[in-house]
Amino acid sequence: MRGVRVGVVAAMPSELRPVAKRLGLRSGPDRRMVGRYEGVDVVAVRTGMGTAAAGDGTRRLLDAVAPDHVVVVGVAGGIAPGQRIADVLAIDVVIDGHTGAEYRPHLLAAAAIAAEGERAPAALHTADELIADPDRIAALRSTGVVALDMETAAVAAVCEERGCPWSVVRAVSDRFDDRLADRAVFDLARSDGSPDPAAVARFLLRHPGRIPGLVRLGRDFGAARQAAADALAAALGTLPAHPS
After folding, report:
1. 165: exposed, middle or buried (Cβ count in 10 Å: 0-12, 13-18, 19+)
2. Which has fewest Cβ within 10 Å: 4, 66, 68, 135?
3. DSSP summary character for residue 242
4. Cα 155 to chain center, whole Å?
C-alpha cells in the first residue's frame, strides 16, 4: 500500500503559507512545497491569480507529480446574505463565468466540511474580473451562487480533462454587502497575489479614510485563509490509503 498523493493548488503566497505551516510542508523542487500529513503525501504549488495562471499551474503539477487528487484551497468573496467571515464553503458546483461550464467537486471537500460541522451546499462562480455591480451580484445570487473566486473553474477544467479527481476548500474572506473590497483595493496586489508596496503607499496617501477598512480586510483575510488550511488538514486525515 502507498499513501494517497494529493496536489494542493493555491493562487497566492498568503494562501499557501498557512497550508504549509498547518501540514508541516517544506520547500521542494521547482518551488513546490512537499511533505506528508496523516499518511497523505502532499505536494503544494502556488499558481498566481486568475484562470490562465491557475490552469497552467495545475497542468505543471499534474505533469510533475501525477497526484491522485487535487485540492484548490484559499479564500473567496462571499455574496450570500448572512455569511460569516472565515465560513468554510461546502461547494457542490463550480461555474465558469466565461463559458458557463459547470464542474462538480469530489469527496474531499465534503470530508473537510463534515469535519468542521455541516454547512449549506454552495455554488462558486469563477471569473477573472472583480464583480462589484449590485445588479450582477443579484443575478448571480438568483442562480444559487454564494461566493466568487478567480481560479477554481480553471483548475477543475484541467483536472477533468486529465481524469484527476479534484475538490475545493475555500473560506469567506470578504462579503459583498460590507463594500470593503473594490477595484481600487484589488489593484493593490500584484498578479501573484502578493501586495504591491508602492501601490499601497499611494492608496493610503490618497485615501487615508479607508485605512480602517483595509485593516479589517487584512484581519478577515487572515482568518479565512487559516480556516481553509484547517479544513484541508481535517479532510486529509480522512483519506484512505491508495493501493500500490
Report:
1. middle
2. 135
3. B
4. 10
Query: What single-letter amino acid sits at 48?
Result: G
Q: What is the pLDDT of residues 164-194, one digit of tens each?
A: 999 999 999 999 888 777 777 777 777 776 7
Distances (CA, A) of 55 to 47, 151, 158, 176, 180: 8, 8, 6, 26, 29
Neighbouring CB atoms inside 10 A of 117's CB total: 7
Residue 236 has pLDDT above 90, yes or no: no
Question: pTM above the 0.85 mark?
Answer: yes
| DSSP structural state of residue 101 | -
* Summary mean pLDDT of the chain: 87
Say if strands 88-96 and 121-126 run parallel, antiparallel, or are unpaired. parallel
